[in-house]
Design a protein that fits this description.
Layout (H helix, E strand, L loop, with lengths): L1 H19 L1 H9 L7 H24 L3 H25 L19 H30 L8 H4 L14
Helix pairs in contact: 1-3, 2-3, 3-4, 4-5
């Protein structure tokens, strides 16, 4: 739950800041020099922050965590790939991760790359935990190895018997 809330807060804040400063986000995207057409970056600058906002909000609310976890993982993978290529190419840019409202050194590609890798690891962990919990809900007898992950949550009651 902690990882879910941390990711949800980060995505909600980052998306909100980008949505409020869409033009700045657009110019940051152009500085990555990935060769996509201008219209593509315009669409991304407008749409992507809202995907982050919705993802973050749903994570915080605990809704569709299994599905949103996969979406957040995909978003983090895009962050890692974009920042990784910027670091490898030695591009001098501001990452645009938080709408440009953070300290300049936090926006450096190398720092942002490390942050993106940590977010990716957290998102993957969230998906793994969600999958394990879902497996436990479906068949607690076959998921005994998952019990330590859910111990103390109050939902570890015995499975219901069928009424046939």
């Amino acid at each position: 739950m902690v990882i879910r809330c941390i990711l949800g807060t980060i995505f909600l804040a980052a998306g909100g800041l980008k949505a409020m400063h869409a033009y700045d986000f657009y110019t940051n995207l152009l500085s990555y020099q990935v060769g996509a057409p201008d219209w593509f970056f315009r669409i991304v600058a407008v749409m992507f922050p809202w995907i982050e906002i919705i993802s973050g909000g749903l994570l915080l609310a605990g809704l569709w965590v299994e599905t949103i976890g996969i979406l957040v993982t995909a978003q983090c993978l895009v962050f890692v790939l974009m920042l990784g290529q910027a670091v490898l190419r030695g591009l001098d840019l501001q990452c645009g991760c938080f709408g440009g409202l953070t300290a300049p050194w936090l926006e450096l590609p190398s720092v942002a790359f490390v942050r993106a890798c940590l977010l990716l690891a957290a998102a993957v962990w969230l998906v793994i935990l969600s999958d394990r919990r879902e497996a436990m809900r479906k068949d607690p007898a076959q998921s005994a190895d998952v019990a330590p992950l859910t111990a103390g949550r109050g939902d570890d009651a015995a499975p219901r018997e069928s009424r046939e």
